[in-house]
Each structure stands twice: as C-alpha cells, then as structure tokens.
Design a protein that fits this description.
438 residues, alpha/beta, Rossmann fold, 2 domains
C-alpha cells in the first residue's frame, strides 16, 4: 500500500518547531508499536503489518550530494527548474524500483509536497510522469474485480479503472497558519519569508493540487490535521472504518463560559474513535488563534478550562506571542482566515460518511447549521444530540435523527443536568451507529 502524503513546509509532517518528531514520524513509530502489540495478543486483523515513510526531499538532497552537488535544504529551491526536475526524477526512479514498495503487508508513506511557494512563485513538488508510473504499476498489481467495468465518455475513449483504496491514496497534512509560521520561523530556510496571507494561499494551493491529482487517478484524498491523533491516518491506512465529521458550537460555548461542554464534545469524539475515523474541526485552530487579539487574561481564564489552557500553551509557545501575532492581523487577513476555515470544514464533511453534532445549547450556531445543510445536501446522514424537547424546524429538517428528551421527559435545566443528558444521548447514538455500520 502507498500513501502520498503532501503538505506545505511548516505543517510538522516530519519535524516540530523544537526538532522533535513530526506527525508522520510519530504515526510510523506508534503505528508499528500498536501492530506488534496487537499481533502478540492475536487481535490484529488488517493485512497491513508494517509502516514506513520515505522523505522525498531528504532523498533528493542525498542524491544531490552523491552527484557532488553543493545543495542544502536552504538552497535547493533556488536551483534551476531543470536541475530540480532531474533530482526529483532520480528520487522517484529509486522509489518506484524499490521491491519493498510492493510488499502486500507494507504501507509506504511518501512524504512530499504538491508545490512550494518560493519568492513569489510556485514550484512543483511532484513529478507527474513518475506518479503515472506509480499508479499504473499499482493498477497492474491490484486489478479491479471486473476489468470490463470502466467509464466511457466518448466513442473509443476508455478511462482506467479506479485504484482500490487499499492500493494507494493521497493524504494532505494541514495545520493552523499560526503553528505553520511558528515552525517555519524556527528554520533558516523560511524564517521571515512568508506572511500570513502567503501561508493561507500556499496551503490552499497544496490541498487543491493534491485533490486534483487524486481525482485524475480516481483515488481517495483526505485532509488530516496535524493536531489529530496519529490513529486518524493510521485507521485510514489499516481499516475501512466509517468516517465521521464531529460538529459542535465552539464559539458559542466559549462565550458562555461552558468550556466543560467543549471537553465533553471532544471526549465524545475520542469514544467514537474506537469504532470510527473522526474529524474534529478544533484540530485546526485558525479561528481560535485569531480570537486572541481580543482575549485578555480574564477571558482566557473564563473561556478555557485548565486542560485547554495547557493545550494552548503547548501549541502556541506563549499566550503573549500568540496575542501579538493575532493583533498584527489586518481585516483582510482575518476575512481570509475565516473563509479558509469554512472551506476546510466543508471539505472535512465531504470526506466523511456522516455528520454527528454535539449541540448542548439552545443558542443558534451559524457554523453548525451551515455544516448540517452541507452534509444533508451532499447525501450524508446527520445526527444531532440536543438536550431540549423544543427544537427549531430548520434544525430538525436537515437531521437524519435528533436525540433529544422524549415528550414526557423534563428538559434539563442546570448545567450538570444538561451534561448528564448529553452523556446518555452519546451512549445511545454510539450504540445506534455501531449497529447501523456493522
């Protein structure tokens, strides 16, 4: 199995800002440990028994040194396009000719870029010729069950059959702009060279190009947030589990000082991960980071629990630095960040099989309602956990099912009563989803 893992510089694919292992490195380490443990216990059911990653950029630098070229990370993007193309071809040739690549129990993660934004222009990060060789060879080795089933759009034109997901797919690692800039500024190559709007545009270009390549070959393309657990991508690789987009009214609950309900929503997401692949919108924190322009010390204490404050300090470095970054944003950049958040969340819904909504408040959330409408009108099932009997017909209209109090049950009034109902509703929904997808 092959995963083509794209993502712009600074998304922490291989390294964090402090030099510690990045998302894909931890995925391979933790994934191989889990496979070995479950094999020893006789519980491992996936045909994948090993994970590895190949750093395509590192491979290119290594082959450049073998050729006697004085090329470093800081200077490689200044090479002539033809020289970069040759290095890329050498690296891809080595990968395609690696016999281990085709071992049926091995998943190889090719860590690469779809594009680079460098000195005001785009530089390709993938070689379409060698990608085609990779896909054609995967098709040859993993034929579809019925080779006669193909699409025909014009007389005599026959499209190649789609590659089954267990053969190859694309995954793009994404992250918040603040965290990307923080990692970039920790390197000599990128320090001070990309502004916030550059990062927004570059990440959009990376996602768009990756999705186009995937659509051309008719294989899946997934967005995976850096702050998601590594098991998110691990489960996409090893299992065919249903995918859930978890929606909840983050801003409303924060402003109401209901940080514990946000924790409940995320704990609910963790429970769902035992049987499903879950996409949590709070795993990319663009809106959260930008909000710190107006969040003072008192609001910080009120809107975030102790656990959430510790989590923020872990990804922000310091609240003071985060606040300074947020206050530096102009109105146009804030608008672009908001739009990027909307588009990203809708894409996460598109790659999911269903939309599950944890909605413990009667306050209207434009974000949650918009996500519901998008999921409903693109053929997804929508499930709502809601603690009140009276529900807007607009909210109910777009729902496959609403788990709320029965007509004879009292509405919960106090915060602890609402929390207790949401726990019971979560139990009921998990039981239902497991039964429906088994």
């Amino acid at each position: 199995m092959i995963v083509i893992a794209t993502g712009i510089s600074g998304t922490g694919k291989l390294h964090e800002a402090d030099g510690s292992p990045g998302y894909l490195v931890r995925l391979v380490e933790e994934g191989n440990q889990r496979i070995l443990q479950e094999q020893r216990e006789g519980r491992w059911t996936s045909p994948i028994r090993r994970l590895r990653y190949i750093d395509m950029g590192g491979l290119m630098l290594g082959r450049a040194r073998d050729l006697g070229l004085d090329v470093r990370t800081e200077t490689i993007l200044d090479m002539a396009p033809e020289s970069l193309q040759e290095l890329r071809a050498i690296a891809f040739t080595e990968v395609v000719n690696d016999p281990d690549l085709w071992e049926p129990d091995l998943c190889t993660i090719l860590v690469t870029h779809a594009c680079f934004w460098w000195k005001g222009h785009l530089i390709p990060g993938l070689d379409t010729h060698y990608l085609k060789l990779l896909f054609d060879e995967t098709r040859r080795r993993m034929p579809t069950p019925d080779e006669r089933v193909v699409q025909e759009t014009l007389p005599g034109l026959r499209l190649a059959p789609a590659v089954r997901p267990e053969g190859i797919f694309y995954a793009t690692i994404i992250d918040s702009v603040y965290q990307i800039q923080r990692r970039l500024n920790a390197t000599e190559q990128w320090r001070g060279k990309v502004e916030v709007d550059d990062v927004i545009a570059w990440q959009e270009q990376e996602v768009f190009i990756s999705s186009m390549f995937a659509a051309y070959e008719r294989v899946p393309h997934y967005l995976v947030a850096h702050d998601e657990p590594t098991r998110t991508l691990f489960d996409l690789i090893c299992f065919k589990r249903p995918r859930i987009y978890l929606g909840y009214p983050i801003t409303n609950l924060r402003l109401q000082g209901q940080a514990t309900l946000i924790e409940m929503a995320r704990e609910f997401g963790q429970r769902l991960r035992d049987r499903f692949v879950v996409c949590d919108p709070l795993s990319v924190k663009d809106e959260e980071a930008a909000a710190f322009a107006s969040i003072g010390a008192d609001e910080f204490e009120q809107q975030f629990s102790a656990e959430q404050r510790a989590e923020i300090l872990a990804w922000a470095g310091s609240v003071e630095h985060l606040r300074a970054w947020a206050r530096h944003l102009d109105d146009r950049t804030r608008l672009q960040l908001g739009r990027a958040t909307v588009v990203r969340d809708l894409r996460l819904i598109d790659q999911s099989d269903m939309n599950v909504i944890f909605y413990p408040t009667s306050q209207m959330s434009f974000g949650v309602l918009s996500e519901m409408i998008h999921a409903h009108t693109t053929g997804k099932k929508v499930y709502i956990l809601y603690p009140f009997k009276s529900i807007s017909p607009f909210l109910e209209y777009y729902a496959t099912a609403v788990l709320n109090p029965q007509p004879d049950d009292p509405d919960p009034q106090m915060p602890d009563e609402i929390a207790a109902f949401m726990r019971r509703a979560a139990d009921r929904l998990i039981t239902r989803l497991v039964a429906e997808t088994s």
